[in-house]
Design goal:
The protein has 772 residues and is α+β, with helices and mostly antiparallel strands. The protein has 14 helices and 38 strands. Helices cover 19% and strands 29% of the residues. It is globular, with a radius of gyration of 28 Å.
Length: 772
């Protein structure tokens, strides 16, 4: 809901209010952003600043110093010395500007998108216009998504003058808050260690973060949040921020000398410059803001609702995702049709629904040094072609998925031999390589046309149900001969990427596209506008994945996270974790398997089949339920999650252990999200333990001494496994959430009984909660 009167703009979502006022000096003051309030008189919210302090500068006599105000748009070089959203070389040749509020209007049409991805189905849009003496105008667009408690912002700058303007910084959002008692949380990391939660306290000065490798990046995700002092998962004020963009991005949080906080976010300013000739405009990507008084979980739920209802492609918003098997870690490049089909036959018997053929099916692609760019099928490996392979998979009951990396090219390829000038390279320099490949110049239309044609020909040649779209290196040597101003390179490259997505993904709405960039190097809202899921990380180690998925959950729902069960020792960490733990972790996302299932033992195949059956039975809940963090692995030992159905009739709890601490405290397992008055049953999902797990201590209960590595124990372990504990309770939601469940004692050495939980390093359990 929007109310506008006497220069005051009040924007309300279901639980938040964003209130602005045009001041007589032409600035637009942010009076309030936070929990919803009803306001008849805004005077209590106005900053009481009538003069500058000490060395402050005022633009006009009798007016307040800009440094004392919370502003939505800051004039340049006019007394506001905080970093502002806009910086431009103006027609007069200097940097000074004096933006003045002109008008505000409300409408129900969407804000302009300018060819960029954006949130859909907003409620109302407010447009605020500013003028400037040199002829530059600025428009701020605010779109309300009331049920999600989200407001998005973007900026359009237009040169109405007679001389050129050079944009040097054009960010999407500037938010000033009157306090600074917040902690800043970012999702930082690296390849195979994405989305690790980092906390920093605010103090006077500026903290800047972002990514400038050519994509949204694995080092710093565009999502971040500010939590008030004392905020917890369940209570306290929390502001969340994100950006609908897949290229270089930045954000900053600045505390000024008076304790106010300014939050900026948008396109990365380093290396950015954008010329505006007379009559030209520039539109920024869409920034996403939310607030919750219900702690970090409340903020996350706002973001999750927003993504599920307004970002994901409509055909896939509520559509269940298949259980897949990807051959990559099972075969790497060493496969042929016969091997793939033999793997697929086993996978189909286990309950897998989709078989994904990863890298190595095309050109001279027997390793990562050749073939990229040539998407003709390698008939030596696949004599029946893709269509023939897909038909054979279909007879097994499996859909067919395929891997691409269309933005890249190897030197050893026909494409490079024909068009060596199509790569990103700076004249006079040897272009750098990453993973033995170059980046194709998406700023060039002819390059994009080639990708659309070659990829489209493959996609239309066979019944392909799924595509994994990969991108495995950073961008370097940024230069394109198609551009007159190289300061526009990274944004134009990103716009070229979106052109590919529009012409390939949007035109094929029934194909399930999964974004990938060496894992989570491009995990962002821009990609999610075209692809409803993203490969969260190349790291499939369950222990690290619990941290990665926890971190990602602050800004993204489980239905966007590709999560696979892989072999052990893990290919990224060489760590061995139990098969059940690998499944129990991947189940809180979009389940897949990435290993050669032919090599599983009979017992492991039984376990995998049971896992897939369990996942299918609870697929809607695990993929689309409300997700809560119960134990945070960044703050405590272990990890615990719960996902709850919309009607609160059922839930699933995942409980994960780090290194076992013997005889340690085990507090009650408290849940969240349940209806207080409803009676529930809580039961552990059955698992089995290999008797060899006990080693020599098994002799404590055997009537005769046995060699723990000998023939008898080895043989017995193949026909019998010890069931885990049988544990079930009935209790109200109030009891489960406030008091919690005291679970059975953990294994304590020689004192084993059937009433103990057999747990060891990296053990885990799933608990099913159902309304009785």
């Amino acid at each position: 809901m929007v109310e506008m009167k006497d220069g005051v703009i009040m924007m309300h979502t279901d639980k938040t209010s964003y209130i602005l006022e045009a001041r007589r000096d032409g600035t637009l003051e942010n009076l309030y952003y936070g929990g919803r309030i009803e306001v008849d008189d805004v005077s209590p919210l106005r900053a009481k600043v009538d003069a500058g302090y000490g060395m402050d500068v005022v633009r006009h006599e009798g007016m307040a110093a800009l440094s004392g105000l919370c502003l939505e748009l800051s004039p340049q070089q006019r007394g506001d010395y905080r970093r502002g959203a806009l910086l431009a070389r103006m027609p007069h040749g200097g940097l000074a500007s004096d933006y003045a509020f002109e008008k505000a209007k409300m409408g129900f049409s969407a804000a302009p998108a300018g060819g960029m991805p954006h949130a859909k189905d907003g409620d109302e849009t407010v447009t605020v216009s500013f003028s400037e003496p040199s002829g530059v105008s600025v428009e701020l667009f605010y779109t309300l998504f009331e049920k999600a408690d989200v407001i998005t912002k973007r900026v359009r700058i237009t040169n109405h003058g007679q001389k050129p303007v050079l944009l040097l910084r054009a960010l999407s959002s500037q938010l000033d808050l009157p306090r600074s008692d917040y902690s800043l949380y970012t999702l930082s990391g690296a390849w195979a260690r994405e989305c690790h939660l980092k906390k920093k306290s605010l103090s006077q000065g500026i903290q800047m973060f972002g990514n400038n490798t050519g994509s949204s990046g694995n080092q710093c995700n565009p999502f971040f949040f500010l939590a008030e002092r004392g905020a917890t998962e369940q209570s306290g004020g929390v502001y969340g921020f994100n950006l609908v963009y897949s290229g270089n991005h930045e954000a900053s949080v600045e505390v000024d000398a008076q304790g106010k906080t300014r939050v900026l976010q948008g396109i990365h300013s380093d290396g950015f410059s954008w010329p505006l000739a007379p009559g030209e405009s520039f539109l920024t990507p869409e920034a996403v803001l939310t607030f919750s008084e219900e702690g970090k979980t409340g903020m996350s739920h706002n973001m999750h609702r927003f993504i599920k209802d307004h970002i994901l492609p409509k055909p896939w918003r509520d559509r269940p995702r298949p259980v897949l098997l990807n051959n990559w870690e099972g075969t790497y490049f060493n496969f042929n049709e016969q091997k793939l089909l033999s793997i697929a036959k086993v996978a189909a018997k286990l309950g897998v629904e989709l078989f994904v053929l990863d890298d190595g099916w095309f050109g001279r692609r027997d390793n990562d040094r050749a073939g990229l760019g040539d998407y003709d099928v390698d008939r030596k490996k696949l004599p029946s072609g893709l269509a023939g392979l897909a038909r054979k998979l279909k007879t097994l009951g499996l859909d067919f998925g395929l891997w691409f990396e269309p933005e890249m090219v190897n030197r050893d390829s026909r494409l490079f031999e024909t068009h060596p000038d199509w790569i990103v390279q700076t004249p006079g320099y040897e272009p750098g390589q990453g993973r033995n490949q170059y980046v194709l110049d998406l700023c060039r239309r002819e390059v994009r046309d080639y990708i659309v044609a070659s990829m489209g020909e493959v996609l239309d040649s066979a019944p392909i149900a799924y595509v994994k779209w990969d991108m495995n290196r950073y961008i370097s040597d940024a230069f394109s001969p198609a551009l007159q101003d190289q300061g526009t390179f990274f944004h134009r490259f990103t716009m070229g990427l979106y052109d590919l997505f529009e012409r390939i993904c949007t035109l094929r709405p029934d194909i399930l596209f999964e974004g990938c960039s060496s894992g989570g190097n491009r995990f962002d809202l821009g990609v999610l506008c075209y692809m409803p899921q993203i490969w969260t990380s190349d790291d499939t180690d369950a222990h690290i994945r619990q941290k990665i998925q926890t971190g990602a959950s602050y800004g993204y729902p489980p239905c966007t996270m590709g999560c696979h069960v892989s072999a052990v020792p893990n290919h990224q960490t060489l760590r061995s974790t139990p098969l059940d733990t690998r499944f129990n972790t991947a189940a809180f996302g979009l389940l897949g398997y990435e290993l050669d299932v032919r090599h599983l033992t009979r017992e492991e195949k039984e376990d995998v089949a049971a896992q897939i059956e369990f996942y299918k039975n609870h697929r809607g809940l695990l993929q689309f339920g409300d997700f809560y963090r119960l134990v945070n692995p960044f703050e405590e030992d272990g990890c615990r999650w719960i996902v709850v159905s919309k009607d609160k009739s059922e839930a699933i709890v995942g409980d994960y252990m780090d290194l076992l601490q013997p005889n340690s405290a085990v507090p009650p397992m408290r849940l969240r999200g349940l209806d207080a008055k409803t009676l529930y049953t809580v039961a552990v999902r059955p698992q089995k333990v290999n008797i060899k797990t006990f080693g020599g201590i098994i002799n404590y209960i055997l009537p005769v001494h046995m060699n723990p590595g000998g023939f008898v124990i080895n043989t017995a372990s193949k026909v019998y496994r010890l069931p885990t504990e049988k544990e079930a309770y009935k209790a109200t939601g109030e009891l489960l959430c406030k008091a919690g469940v005291q679970r059975m004692q953990a294994f304590s050495g020689a004192g084993y009984s059937e009433y103990m939980r057999i747990i060891s390093d990296f053990s885990s359990r799933l608990y099913v909660v159902k309304r009785t």
